[in-house]
Amino acid sequence: KILIIGACGQIGTELTAKLREMHGTENVIASDINTRNLDLVNSGPFEIIDAKNYNAIKDCCKTYSIDTVYLMAALLSATGEKYPMEAWDLNMNSLFHVLNLAKESTIKKVYWPSSIAVFGPTTPRENTPQHTICEPTTVYGITKQVGERWCEYYHKKYGVDVRSLRYPGIISHKAMPGGGTTDYAVEIYHEAIKNESYECFLSEDTSLPMMFMEDAIKATIDLMEAPSEHLSIRSSYNLSAISFTPKEIYDSIKKNILNFKITYRPDFRQAIADSWPSSIDDSVARNDWNWQHRFDLDAMTSEMLKELKKKYNS
Ligand code: VAH
């Protein structure tokens, strides 16, 4: 059976739905620190678990005979700068708990997300390679960089089958993201429909690697289903789909909402965005497990606007 820690989050919500569709609801246990997503809580097996609590995770794995864990709980880049020690505590200790349970062999396979936040201002910004300089300047990025090293260590030293992806910014309409620097690219769709105007917290020419949630979920499942012997990376795979600037996503939306207006008012998140690459080379993922993104910017925009219009007009 599968346990998802952080199931109420932006990615966790959709990962839970997809895994339940594939394996049956009763075989996928959702868990989070609280019950903020009642639809999810009421749609199948749900446990309240604090990802910092080793015994809570261990007991849940025992109760449900869990053999696969998706660890999706974390404090993201912007929140991590406000609460550095909390971000270190949650992001690192939750990973140690799951890796140690896997080492003790109660868990057979682990998924743990990394991020383009592992890269920093000294990393080559265009087509950032799989192996390159990583000097992250955010607490979140530091936790992801160190987490990658621990994943590779537990795989090499204890044979733990842990797999990871360096997610770009992820855009979705089912669950709101929380505390990310790339979250402007989600907010902008909501504001375009609600107010036909948006004040963007990044400057208009800030190019960042991004991905529609459907592609992120497909990449996660494809990686977890790939034969272990095909995987050459046990830190975390570069993953990419599209890169765009606030101006480009604005233009894409404006094709559908003709009166949409945008203003730019960069805040502390501009410095975080400026430390990250503008595009990623994910050829290793494409070679190892046939990764291929499907959504370009305009396809994502039409899907986002279609689904959000239903939500706001319902
Ligand atoms: C953040 N959405 O902005 C996350 C992600 C690549 C960015 O890690 O912090």
Automatic annotation (TrEMBL):
GO terms for molecular function: L-threonine 3-dehydrogenase activity. Residues 2-230 form the NAD-dependent epimerase/dehydratase domain. InterPro entries: Epimerase_deHydtase, NAD(P)-bd_dom_sf, NAD(P)_epim/dehydratase. It comes from the Bacteria. One of its GO terms (biological process) is L-threonine catabolic process. Belongs to the NAD(P)-dependent epimerase/dehydratase family. This is NAD-dependent epimerase/dehydratase family protein. It comes from Winogradskyella flava. The lineage of its organism: Bacteria, Pseudomonadati, Bacteroidota, Flavobacteriia, Flavobacteriales.
